[in-house]
UniProtKB/TrEMBL annotation:
Protein name, as recorded: WSCD1 protein
Keywords: Repeat
Xref: Pfam families: Sulfotransfer_1, WSC
GO MF term set: sulfotransferase activity
Classification via PANTHER family: SIALATE:O-SULFOTRANSFERASE 1, WSCD FAMILY MEMBER CG9164
Amino acid sequence: MAKAFFRLQKFLRRIQFLLFFLTAAYLMAGSLLLLQRTRLVLQQGSRGTPSNQALPVPEEMGRVGMTEPRSLQNPRLLVGMDVLQEPALGQQHSPHWLMSRNSELRQLRRRWFHRFSSDQEPLQTAGFKAMKRTAEHKGTYMGCFTHDSRERTLKGAVFYDLRKMTVGHCQEACAERAYSYAGLAFGAECYCGNTLPAAAAKAEECSSECKGEKGSVCGGLNRLSVYSVEQLRAGARPLRRNVVYRGCFRAPENLTDTFPASLIQPNLTVEMCSEFCSKKEFPLAVIRGQECYCGYPTRRFSLHEGMDGRRCSGSHNASTAGGDYCLVYQTPVQDTRCTDRKFLTTKSKVFVALSSFPGAGNTWARHLIEHATGYYTGSYYFDGALYNKGFKGEKDHWRSRRTICVKTHESGKTEIEMFDSAILLIRNPYKSLMAEFNRKYAGHLGYATDRNWKSKEWPDFVNSYASWWASHVLEWLKYGKRLLVVHYEELKQSLIPKLKEMVEFLNVTVTEDRLLCVENNRDGNFKRPGAKQKNFEPFTREMKDLINRYILTVDEALKGRNFSGLPREYVPR
């Protein structure tokens, strides 16, 4: 019996060693395989084309509208997917084909859709990096002060850079807008103003390091590190360049009640009045004869009913305005009555989407909603460039229900039915396609080059994205539970009425003055500067025929759901 037990024990020991060696071999083999794959990916990336250069598109993918050749750099994106077949010609533009075709391509699009946000961020901050190397703290450090984001002491412009903020960056931004002081808080927020904060704090309470500059102090929790920027102002742009003529308006009946600050000055000039109002931290400078008034757009003076310029003698000189009319100028000062934002204090009971096709103005709509409601908006994705510029909801989980609504470009049945309601933002497909193509190749604020427009990628892009524009609307109309349809062009033309509809849809009550503040800050930080004119027509006759058929399909679908059809400028005549 003992002998048999000894043999069994010896056998089990051998099995233990065998299992140990097999496990070790398995782990080593897996590690080697992982290293090999990593090396292969790195080699492919180093031998691949630059990020701004197009790869050739295989003929099979060109036929189905595969627009993103960069996805071919990663063969794993194509594993397990069959080659998509072109539908019959008669069925090519039917709603059913649009939705089915879109669902097949959606997974690929989703993978690379936001890839360029991180790629373009270095381009957008290139000038800022150069400034960081050369900028010094030219202003005097005034000390550490208390800070309340809702009742701010520095009441001028506000800037965010949650990755790259430096003292020099903040000083330059405030100096360009003719402010005297620059204050930094939380390591990433910049506040400008002309009045030094009254409540000082202990120096050690300003302990947050600047996000983009090691060793520099950028405030703290409810604390501001304040710098004087007087020395910078000499090198800043002339103030007149930052003053915008708003027009000729009928003067309110009681100017002293309407405007909180005033000045009477013989030989008054625009520069004198705008400088005075900037010092007082008001966004409007109003001139009537030798009288200068400062204030905000209000219900009494909304700037909605401009007069013929001849009523003000057709001149912008201060001496020509008088009597019942006045000249209005926008100063460099930001209207801060609507800049405070926060997360919802309790989870929202209604899960609301802000849905749009890419390039349809979703970021601009988020800017308007956040400033109108005072609450952050979320995102189904994460865009570092947006987060760094103050869209703090980008980092919040999209299903947290702490944001007033959630940005999405998704259009699948499952993704749509997750939301209780949605604002469906629609833009002219010609404008949307061009805006998204610019974003892909030059970021949120840049323009694609002529080489990009004339490459093979542009027709491939139109072929695929035009169908996506249509199917996005069709699927939300089909599966959306409660929709508010907003047309980008109508929102742009009638901002206050349309924004009121959106805010009421979100079940938020706002004041008229806050909406006027939003209108005064309507552009936000992601408006492309001007309209870059191209010396050629990007859309061929075939592209226009394709897009126009999709426009008619969407217009018919909207009317079928008892919504107003597309604006007349969309519909081909």
